Amino acid sequence: MLILSLAGALVIGITLGLMGSGGSILTLPLLVYLLGREGDIAFAESLAIVGGIAAFGVIPHARKGLVEWRTALLFGIPSMAGAYGGAYIGGWMNDTLQLILFAGIMLAASIFMFRKSKPKSGDASEEEPAKPMPVLVVLQGAAVGVITGIVGVGGGFLIVPALVLLARLPIHRAVATSLLVIAANSAVAFTRYSIGLSDKGQHVDWGIIATFIAVGAMGTFVGKAVGGRISQAGLRRVFAIFLVVMGIVIIAKESSKYFAPPEPDPSAQVPD
């Protein structure tokens, strides 16, 4: 299990480095189904891991001047506010419902991945962003933030297309900027979850978080290094297939809990 978890952490970092998204969609299933983490603890740890990895991943992009700092603020501030509110809502939701919602988001993300599998000419070569749509950027940022908080995801698979379509950023700049927004969103949502856990007398495992961040951070540098050498379209197709499979598995597994027979109540048994 440990080896599989570390391998998964490396893959998380690589996908974040390559596409600016996908890390959280891998992180939560690893924590829940491989390491047995449960409830809000798993959501909080997922946010801490993805946010930490994204923070390291943005470094090589920032050094190359690919991060659009103004757009990151325009999108990120309402997104962080939404993330805090979403985390508050998530703290009151049923864990099974949160995981089913998470799986639904995975399936929605797979559709986007499939649709974007055909590269468009000029996406990677454009250097100057077109005129953005500020109002829509702010609204989309807030919406992504709420989703981030509720289901414990970084939201990169929503942030990247929003930055491309609404902020009019070239794909490479969108990927770089998304990592900064992911780190900020995750930090805010993690803070809200931590407050809720503290009130319940629970806490996250910082050993797991630190290990995943360390391995995942190495993966982001690997992903950034090889990003220009492999087909982005092919990678997206493979990742989309993975999302479909994982989404179906999670929905099937979590939905079965609603139909499982209830545990017998010992206090209700009639003595002989």
Secondary structure elements and their pairing?
Blueprint: H1 2-19, H2 23-34, H3 39-63, H4 69-90, H5 95-115, H6 134-151, H7 156-165, H8 171-199, H9 206-226, H10 232-259
Helix pairs in contact: 1-2, 1-3, 1-9, 2-3, 3-8, 3-9, 4-6, 4-8, 5-10, 6-7, 7-8
For the structure shown, list the relevant keywords.
10 helices, single chain, 0% strand, mainly alpha, 272 residues
Q: Could you explain the architecture of this structure?
A:
The chain has 272 residues and is mostly helical. It has one domain (2-256). It is 75% helix and 0% strand. It is built from ten helices and no strands. α1 crosses α9, α3 (39-63) packs antiparallel against α8 and α5 (95-115) runs antiparallel to α10 (232-259).
Q: In this structure, how is the largest beta sheet organized?
A: none
Number of strands: 0
Large-scale geometry: globular
Order of helices and strands: HHHHHHHHHH
The DSSP helix count reads: 10
The fraction of residues in strands falls at: under 5%
Number of domains in the coordinates? 1
Terminal-residue CA separation: 46 Å
Radius of gyration: 19 Å
State the low-pLDDT regions, or none: 121-129
What percentage of residues falls in helices of 4 or more residues? Answer: over 70%
What structural class do the secondary elements suggest? mainly alpha
Averaged pLDDT, please? 77
